[in-house]
Amino acid sequence: MMNDGRVHPAAAATSSDFSGEMNQSQSAYSSSDPSSSPLYSFHFEKPVPPPALPHGHQPKQPQHQKTTPPQKPQPGTYVVQVPKDKVFRVPPPENERLFQHYTRRAKRQSGCSCLRACLYLLLAIVCLAVLLAVAVGVVYVVYKPRQPAYSVVSLAVSGLAGVGNASAPGAFTPGFDATVRADNSRNGKMGVHYDGAGSRVAVSYDGVSLAQGAWPAFYQAPGNVTVFVAKAKGAGLRFSERVRGQMAAAERLRSVPFDVDVKVPVRLQLGGVKTWAVSVTVRCTIAVDRLAATAKVVSRSCSAKVPFLFWRI
Q: Among candidates 240, 181, 228, 230, which has minimal Cα distance to 203?
């Protein structure tokens, strides 16, 4: 196509025929769906050769440019014109709708996968809880476990003599030897392992800590009653005048109360299976008639807490 607007006749015929086919196709699209009309229009033109010059004449070239031989236009060359308003810089609406459709479907599939995984996990937890309940029921029926009973038979006191006297030393070193009776006679098929590591025995008076010790490690067979001594020791204790006066007055009344707190890890022996370790807590309130090694227990009360739900408290 030249700047003077002339069109080769053959090219014009071809362009008109092609435009007629495009118009028919466009009318077919618009009759069925207005939104499906062609997005582009094409106009083909065959370039027209430049006008012939008289023989022996050459086109004038500028003085400052280098003279180059004229290039012959290549045959069969066409120019495709696309309207400016048909050049899209963003995806067309059809692509945007498809993208949103596939995005929503992917989100639904992801949500369904997460929901399915949660349901499977919940089902697994329920099945595990049911199996655990069945196992606990079988253990209860077969072994019939019962909580062992604990009591303090005697409590020997040392290092507190003359606590009420004004001439007594300022610092005391109290010591306690508690004779404990552990009764497992109610369990004919269950043994108890007591772990010394991690155990604690503490003795206090009116909230004031006096001594600490450990529970001995041993195994108690089914139907067994074991009596042992748990020791607790304190050092460098200084009491207020109020505490010393209360302790001296209680000794005169032949009833000095002490609190004994025990925490010991235990493992159950069920046949050939040993369970995991759990902490048994025992709290006893003991009253003795004097602050001496020959002290006698005048009153006692003990309570135990075992974190096994199937044990009868």
A: 230
User: pLDDT digit string (tens) for 138-149?
Assistant: 877 888 888 888
DSSP state of 85: G
Pull the structure tokens for residue 248. 């001296």
**C-alpha R_g of the chain:** 52
- Are the C-beta atoms of 278 and 265 separated by less than 8 Å? yes
Q: Are 285 and 261 a contacting pair, CB within 8 Å?
A: no
Beta strands in the chain (DSSP E): 149-158, 175-183, 190-194, 200-205, 208-213, 218-220, 225-233, 256-270, 273-274, 278-288, 297-305
> Nearest-CA neighbor of 155 among 114, 219, 211?
211
Residues, the chain, total? 313
Q: Are strands 208-213 and 225-233 parallel, antiparallel or unpaired?
A: antiparallel
What's the CA gap between 108 and 102, in Å, rounded?
10
* Contact (Cβ atoms closer than 8 angstroms) between residue 14 and residue 46: yes
Strands (E), 104-159: 149-158
Compute the distance between CA of residue 100 and CA of residue 149 in angstroms, rounded to an integer: 71
What's at 108, amino acid-wise?
R
First-last CA distance in the chain: 107
Q: Which two tokens stand for residue 113?
A: 């996968």
Higher pLDDT, 254 or 65: 254
Please give the residue that has the higher pLDDT: either 196 or 291. Answer: 291
For residue 78, what are the CA distances in angstroms to 42, 45, 75, 157? 11, 6, 9, 118
Q: pTM of the prediction? A: 0.56
Whole-number average pLDDT of the chain: 75
Q: Report whether 184 contacts 220 (CB < 8 A).
A: yes
Contacts of 210 (CB under 8 A, 6+ apart): 174, 176, 203, 204, 232, 234, 237, 258
Q: Are 297 and 287 spatial neighbours (Cβ–Cβ below 8 Å)?
A: yes
Q: Which amino acid belongs to residue 238?
A: R
